[in-house]
Each structure stands twice: as structure tokens, then as C-alpha cells.
Design a protein that fits this description.
Elements lengths: L2 E4 L13 H4 L3 E9 L2 E2 L2 H15 L7 H14 L5 E10 L2 E9 L8 E11 L14 H12 L4 E6 L4 E4 L3 E6 L2 E5 L9 H12 L4 E4 L11 E6 L3 E9 L4 E3 L6 H16 L2 E2 L2
Parallel strand pairs: 1-5, 6-7, 6-13, 10-11
Antiparallel strand pairs: 2-3, 2-4, 3-15, 4-5, 7-8, 9-10, 9-12, 12-13, 13-14
Length: 275
């Protein structure tokens, strides 16, 4: 059966190096925003973990209530009000271990500066495509390369040459009054915030298209944004490719502003008190 390990501030977790969780990175993780003692979009993160665990054959026998109780214990023992809560479900022999731990809040720039990366395509046919796994070294290397070059992140293509996501977030583009985002079939992670933004836009009667897009699209958009659970929505002000540099005032775009305002309300309304 699954175990829950709470890693409090200053403590260390121990893993058996002979087991797949350590040796092969065989595990899943979720990253959740803690704001004013409340956990944002908990139910959606938990459901994604359940879905991926089932598909990838990771046994998860602990209950949602037990994991939430562990998060509450961590938050109270560490005196947390704001920060990042992490869940890691790793294979441990025939069973799994669920680690619960925290890290400080992420400092987010007001706007993203992105560079198109055409040398490390995302494999949309990978068995891991669409899952938030501990096989994350490639993402980290891409992010570090972007930061070293003065960018905040990269835009990745897949093996078919279609736009996908950044190293750590989902992408949205605005053309006129229409919102575009790469389809799940491109191999992207089904981001929690991505799904919420799509539903929110639809509730605002804003046309939304999930599709396959080539890099040429980037030279004709009015605005763009990156989404993930920690940054929520981050407007993009610059996109650089091998052929052009596109500058835009995404933060001033009315659609981006409306979506950011709506998401702030939804984060509050959908939060679970764990403080």
C-alpha cells in the first residue's frame, strides 16, 4: 500500500537507490499554490494525479482526505501562509510513497520573454506525453538555457513541427477576438490552469480554438500568455525565433486582462483551507 511521508522544513527524505522511484525517476508530481493558508484548485490537481497514476501503473491507495490531512499538518508545523506545496508519488517496489513537502513562493516577472527552441522537440508519441512525471531533466535543461540567454522560458515544437508548450507552462495566443492554444494531441501537459482558462474564456463567449500551429503563427498574433499553477497567467511581451522578433503588449490586451481578473476570483473561490 501507499505511504505518506511529510517532509517538514529542515528535514530530509530518504529513498532506496535500488528502487525505480530513485533509479529511474519513476514517479509523478503536482505543484500547488498556497495563498493565505488556502490551497488553490486542489481537486483538479488531485484528479490529474489519480488519472496519470492509473494510466502509468502507479498504485495509489492513500485517500484524498489522508493526503489533505498531511498537507494541513505540513502547513501548520512549518507556519506557512503562502508558498508552494509539492506532492511526489514515486514507485517503491510494488507500492508507492507519496511525499508531501513545501518550498517558497515563486517570484514571477510581470511579463515573459520567450525564445523558440527548434532543437529539442517534444515527442508527442512518448508514453510519458501528457503526464507530469519526475523525468523532468530535459525541461530543467531547457529552462536553464533560456535563463542563461536572457529569456524567461522557451517555446517548444513537437516532432511534427507544431507549437506545444514552454518548459514549465502552457501557451495561449490571441488573434483578434479569438483565443488559440495547442491541442492536447501535440503532446503537451494537460495543465490545470490551461483547462480553467479555456472554460473561463468560453463562459465569456470568447471563441477558443485548440489546434496544431506552426511557428509562423507567432508573427501575426496580438498577444500571448503562459499559464501554470504558480504563475497563474503571465503575459508575454517578447517572442524571438530564428526569423523574427515579435514584441507585444499582452498585459494591456483586454482579453488577457479579463482572464487574469477572472482567474484571481476562481483561485479564491476554489481554494481549500489548509492553514
Amino acid at each position: 500500500m501507499s505511504d505518506i511521508v511529510i517532509v517538514q522544513s529542515g528535514e530530509k527524505a530518504h529513498m532506496d537507490p535500488t528502487q525505480s522511484g530513485f533509479a529511474h525517476g519513476f514517479g509523478l508530481f503536482e505543484t500547488l499554490k498556497l495563498e493565505s493558508g488556502r490551497l488553490c484548485f486542489w481537486a483538479k490537481h488531485w484528479q490529474r494525479l489519480l488519472d496519470s497514476a492509473k494510466i502509468l501503473g502507479l498504485r495509489l491507495t492513500v485517500t484524498e482526505d489522508a493526503v489533505l490531512s498531511a498537507i494541513c499538518e505540513l502547513v501548520r508545523s512549518d507556519g506557512l501562509r503562502d508558498g508552494t506545496i509539492k506532492l511526489s508519488l514515486v514507485r517503491n517496489g510494488d507500492d508507492t510513497t507519496c511525499y508531501v513537502y513545501a518550498r517558497p513562493s515563486l517570484i514571477v516577472a510581470s511579463a515573459a520573454r520567450l525564445k523558440l527552441n527548434q532543437h529539442a522537440p517534444l515527442n508527442e508519441s512518448s508514453l510519458l506525453a501528457g503526464h507530469k512525471t519526475h523525468n523532468y531533466m530535459e525541461n530543467v535543461l531547457l529552462l536553464e538555457s533560456a535563463l542563461a540567454a536572457g529569456f524567461s522560458d522557451v517555446i517548444r515544437l513537437n516532432t511534427a513541427g507544431h507549437l506545444t508548450e514552454t518548459a514549465v507552462g502552457n501557451l495561449f495566443f490571441i488573434q483578434g477576438e479569438r483565443l488559440h492554444t495547442p491541442a492536447l494531441a501535440t503532446g503537451i501537459l494537460p495543465g490545470v490552469i490551461r483547462a480553467i482558462v479555456i472554460r473561463t474564456a468560453q463562459s465569456m463567449s470568447l471563441p477558443v480554438e485548440e489546434g496544431n500551429y506552426t511557428p509562423e503563427l507567432l508573427d501575426s498574433i496580438n498577444a500571448a500568455m503562459v499559464t501554470n499553477s504558480l504563475i497563474s497567467i503571465q503575459p508575454v511581451d517578447t517572442i524571438v525565433t530564428a526569423n523574427f522578433e515579435r514584441k507585444m503588449s499582452s498585459a494591456a490586451n483586454p482579453i488577457v486582462q479579463d482572464l487574469m481578473d477572472a482567474l484571481r476570483l476562481l483561485e479564491t473561490e476554489g481554494a481549500v483551507d489548509v492553514g
